[in-house]
Amino acid sequence: MSKTTGQSDLEQRTQSETLLEVRNLKKYYGGDGFFADAPVKAVNDVSFQIKEGETFGLVGESGSGKSTLGRTLIQLETATEGEILFDGTDVTSLSGSELKEWRRNAQMVFQDPESSLNDRMTVGEIIQEPLDAHGWETKQERRQRVVELLSQVGLRKEHYFRYPHQFSGGQRQRVGIARALALEPEFVVLDEPVSALDVSVQAKIITLLEDLQDEFDLTYLFIAHDLSVIRHICDRVAVMYLGKIMELGETEELYNDPENPYTQSLLSAIPRPDPTASRERIMLPGTPPSPRDPPKGCQFATRCPAKIRPPEYEHLDSEVWDAIERFREVIRERSRIELGTSDRVRRRLGLFSRYDDIEEAYEDLFRQLDLPNDVNEPLQTAVEQVKDGRPRDARQHLHNTFGSVCDNERPEFHTVSETGRQSYCHRHMSEYEDVEPVLARRIDEE
Ligand code: ADP
Ligand code: MG
Questions:
Q1: Is 288 in the pocket of ligand 1 (CB under 6 A)?
Q2: What residues make up the domain containing 318?
Q3: Residue 398 within a domain
Q4: Is residue 440 in a domain?
Q5: Which residues belong to any copy of the ABC transporter domain (predicted)?
Q6: pLDDT tens across 193-240, in order?
């Protein structure tokens, strides 16, 4: 867990070998079958590399696709599309005995040590299970190995015959770690390994993970929603939103000077040790879109406080602009209702009246505002379309009128620092660089 302590350290890591290379990976759930709903795009085209011996962090709000990505990397889930090169071999194409053999290399520690351990097995049996499954050495050597593992994770020999429920949360997580290490993997996915533990226990487990990494040359993917844990333990970090990586780079650098508007807003929510060095907290408006129906352009476009506006609306009052964005969200929700087959059937049967409150929504959002004609007319058209039972047309109409590059085009990954940090945002393009970020809805304005 070499943190950036000096140039030599950094150089060493830059030169180190790539262990895992992910190329355009997608993992969708459902969506097959003629009448099925749109698939959940849990991981939606991500590419990155993990270097040998590093701790690679993955942060993002709940539901952003972190666990799915972790599970897919170690083939607990089948990728929908893309490649996962592990030491140069694409593991998505392995099957049968090849896959089984490879699995030894890549293990997982789960968030909840409560439910991830089988309560009907003794601790010894739980740790030994993967050894048995792989027919590792002789029975006696397997038992010997378990005793060794118990001691490596700070448990005692006599714990062998106890059951998980006799243990504390921290001890159970030690068992989970011992089990993951049984087959001497190179790569371990740690999925929120300390999120369910008391703070004092968290520190001990983290120290254990760091020690084990040094001792056994492990490479970690460390998943967390807690940004401060990641900062402490990770060499590099990727920030995920709605199935995509928004920013990726050296941990300290990314924390000190985030380039992506999503990272900026995520980090602005962490309480700072020195309150006088105040950074305004950015409150994100609205709710995250459904992963069944992610925005067509940038994933973050519907909530981005730094969204680029179309040139003809650049000078619009930001309150009006905000209200337009919220109204578009309301209509998006209405049109999403249409996506479900059962709802379509219900509408045909005349059981559907969820479109009637659109005028109310319009009133709520715009009553107090002074709307120019070129804003109000398209809004009125959209209201009529929704009342007419055509929310998708309304959505499209507003998209055509108020949509900008952020709504229309997927951003590229831009290299934004000398150390190779990458950020997924249109604002890094020279033509948009000078557009003043809005960063609306700071908490101290409310
Ligand atoms: P995170 O770990 O960041 O909280 P997840 O990877 O668990 O996110 O979930 C990402 C998205 O995929 C969520 O919308 C979740 O509901 C969905 N999802 C996860 N697992 C499944 C599954 N087995 N079937 C259908 N949808 C799933
Ligand atoms: Mg998760």
A1: no
A2: 311-403
A3: yes
A4: no
A5: 20-267
A6: 999 999 999 999 999 999 999 999 999 999 998 888 899 899 999 999
